[in-house]
Amino acid sequence: MSADTPMAVASVSKSFTSLAVMQLVERGEIDLDRPVRGYLPEFTMADPRAAKITVRQLLNQTSGMADSTFREKSLPQPGTLEGAVARLRTAELAAEPGTAFSYHNTNYQVAARLVEVVSGRPFRDYLHAHVFAPLGMRNSTTIDTDRDLPGSARGHLYILGQAVALPEPTGFGNGSGGVLSTAHDMARWLIAQNNGILSPRSVKEMRTPSAQNDTYALGWSIRRTERGTPVVEHDGDLFTSTAGQLLMPRSGYGVAVMANTGTAFADADALMDGVVAMIEGGTPQVPSRLSPYLVTDLLFTLLTLATIGLAVRGVVRARRWATRRTGRQRWRLLPYLAPLALCAAITPIFRLLARGRDAAWIQVAYLYPTFVIWLLTTAAACIAVVIARLAGGGRGEPRPPLTVPTAGSRRSG
User: Residue 404: inside a domain, yes or no?
Assistant: First the structure.
């Protein structure tokens, strides 16, 4: 890896999409407070309230769209921005537009499609012509799906303390998370934020949060560091890589980080916090040498090995078990189906624990790899034991021959 290696910046892409929209606003081609449908007639939903969604509400995530009513990750994935908008036709809103904040990638996919339609050119071409080329970002682009990720943007999971290279799970991200960039290019991007990329009025607009969420503006988050320094930032998470960007408007410092490890490990956040601490004259916090993930991975690895051992024992002894149970007692096999039921319920359980955020089954596996391996092993082991016991009961042990005592064999009284 080098400073010119293209990597995924994930949801940092939202700042690029917001900028593209604001450029069209400055040219008078878009009004932030007009309904999206006035510019994008194809944007229709099953909920009639969608007709009131404004461009601003897409960018500050108050449109009313949410993972709870539109499962954008676990549904079949589109291949284009046009397809991303088309699949909303059967979707409902979770809230009245403009009344509640909900971080939802589809907002920015609709915004990117809006840029395509209003500008009359593909979103990728628009960014190249109006953002990347003017800023000298020669190695940056935007892509549609995981299939478009170059080899340099492939990421990793940590399993048993080792970095394991894995492909990103299937997903669509253009507009919401599709930008690929480099360290050098991101430096040019951050410098441009304070160097006339937009008018001061538009920059202020982009950094003004909504009434529904005082930390999220138009593709940027507003907060303070631990030492109280005001910053504007945005982070990004894929399942195999992470990224972050941060600006300190008062001092002019900017930081961009891309890490080729997944969202479960928050490496980009840790690196960002360390760099910011140094800028502010502090000392970066050194991560613990004993990763909590290593302890968890070891635990589930031991459980997986123990499960395999118990399964072998259960299959070997299945015939003996079957001879001791009548047909009516085989209801005792029902608890062995519990791991299979948990496999089927894992995504609804995740949504509950994640407060409505959506994920596909394979994406949950990327977040908790050793747990899911253990769960699948347990489900397979239980099914194998059940089949073996049922088969053993079908064959059964041969019964001893029936003998009838003769009169001469009876004892005298």
Answer: no
Q: How far is CA 66 from CA 102, 193, 205, in A?
A: 6, 29, 24
| Overall pTM > 0.85 | yes
Question: Distance (Å, rounded) from C-alpha 11 to C-alpha 363?
Answer: 17
In a domain, 308, yes or no: yes
Residue type for position 246: L
User: Tokens 């410092």, residue?
Assistant: 253
What are the structure tokens assigned to 119, written together?
Answer: 């500008």
**What would you measure as the largest C-alpha separation in the chain, in angstroms?**
119
CA distance 135 to 186: 10
Quick one: how far is CA 410 from the chain centroid? 81
Distance of CA 385 to the CA centre of its chain: 35
Does residue 260 share a domain with residue 229? yes
pLDDT above 90 as % of the chain:
78
Strands annotated E in 221-287: 221-224, 230-237, 242-248, 253-259
**Closest among 15, 3, 19 to 257, alpha carbons compared:** 3
Count Cβ atoms within 10 A of the Cβ of residue 379 and give its class: 0-12 exposed, 13-18 middle, 19 or more buried: buried
pLDDT digits (tens, 9 = 90+) for 138-191: 999 999 999 899 887 789 999 998 899 999 999 999 999 999 999 999 999 999
Residue 10 near residue 238, CB atoms below 8 Å: yes
Do 57 and 190 fall into the same domain?
A: yes
User: Got the DSSP string for 346-396?
Assistant: HHHHHHHHTTT----HHHHHHHSHHHHHHHHHHHHHHHHHHHHHHHHHHH-
Number of domains, the chain:
2
